[in-house]
Sequence to fold (529 residues):
Amino acid sequence: MFPEPRRRGCKPSDHPRIGRRTLLQAGGLALIGTGLADLLRLESEATASEQQRRPRAKSVVFIFQSGGPSQHETFDPKPDAPDGIRGEYGTTQTALAGVRFCEYLPRLAGRAGKFAIVRTMHHPSGPQLRNEHNSCTYMLHTGTTELPAGDTNATIGAPKPGRMEWPSIGSLLAFALSRGSDVTGQSLFPAVIELPRANHMRYTGRGSGILGPRYDRWGVDLAPPCRSPDPAGSCPNCFSHDDPNDPTRAAGSGPNAWWNNSSCRHPDFQLPNLGGADLVSLPQLGNRACLLQSLENFRRGVEAAPRAGCLESWDVQRQRALQLVLATRPGRQNPFDLTQESDRIRDLYGREEWGQGFLVARRLVEAGVRMVQVNLRGWDTHQNAFRDLKGKLLPSLDRCLSGFLDDLEQRGLLHETLIIMCGEMGRTPRISPITAGGRNASGEIFTPGRHHWGDVFPCFFAGGGIRPGQIVGQTDRQGGLPMTTPYTPADLAATIFHLLGVGPDEEFRDAQGRPYRITSGTPIAPLLA
Fold:
């Protein structure tokens, strides 16, 4: 359900907060009959209100682990649980006394004093929603706990006329932080950018919904197209969960290869085609005639097949394309061009897709972008889970994220950049095969994994305004249920808004002028420094 619209008869402007200086300058006549205790109380309330709205972070980097990583094989292992729950891996001691992570996250374990983990994130909706990708992804990205009225997990992923779709957290941030200025603030780039695979990763909840297209995120496809069936992981350390164990069937150009990856097995980013096929590529932007022709073609397409909001969308895209011409003009650093970084920094992040995504995120934050989303694909580990987590997913994450933290800290950016990482759900406590007797491309029986589980999942927090070096929340002995306070996607959204200085009473209005609170959640108090 959406947050309740605020009553029209009561607006924040009806109850102005009194700044401390204004209060003290009000003079004796304005305070006749007011005792000293009342004066001190009013001053204290005014000061507290000002502090609540003071931003602790300038930008947020949201790392989305698409598919839902296992809590057991990341930040909440259960080494004392029975075999069918514990899993195949051991644990490693972190920099925090008594806290252990999965053994294949040694770099992050050594840096545990730099971040916090919330182990009790939770979807409160029914099992038909909290254990499914589409619905969980929608709720996570919009910071809500239910789907729009009339939608199900099966329908939320498709366009639906008249849907009251809640805006994504990024779109709400773009709106709230643009008050009194254009949507991009001081940056020539959009307020929210998603990479390195954005338009080719189809998931729900990423749009601006009832806010309108002015506040849409900008999807950037930097990574080259991947031709793997069921692609996962970080190229060139990528894979498919269906990969055979038979070495003669390994992917490549060999005669027995089950798929040919010889043309796409490299991690180097291309300069972006921002916004998909309807827009223009970066090289085209240097050619003004080509740019104008592309925009004219887009306009004609709109007129030939008009759709709701399409003209407004065209105007937004035209403005963004022209902004990009300025942002990438000769003599100005292009944040997408990683050749400007030293070999030392490239190696620190890792020469793979995920590390390059984090490095572009850092450069975009430096360019003034308020929110960057980095998508990490491949965490839907139903089958061959322990093979793929150990060999691919966990080593890539451990290296790339550690390098990202180190670089931000060395540059003095960590304290002003909020970093959040999670998937849309967790995984089941019990290990089991995806289907009885299920087989891969070589006819081998799948080794088991874990399945969808929205009752509890972990979330990583670091940077601007976060109190690092702690574990928030405790799960039961099987890692399946929260034993302490559970936190919802609405609370996650409220935490982001709070740390970026967006007040709890902030509102937006839809096209019909109806007011809505930006969030119905509560900031996660133990995290706040």
Notes: The chain has three domains: 12-50, 58-156+168-227+342-384+395-527, 272-333. The longest strand covers residues 59-65. The first helix runs from residue 20 to 24. Residues 12-50 form one domain.
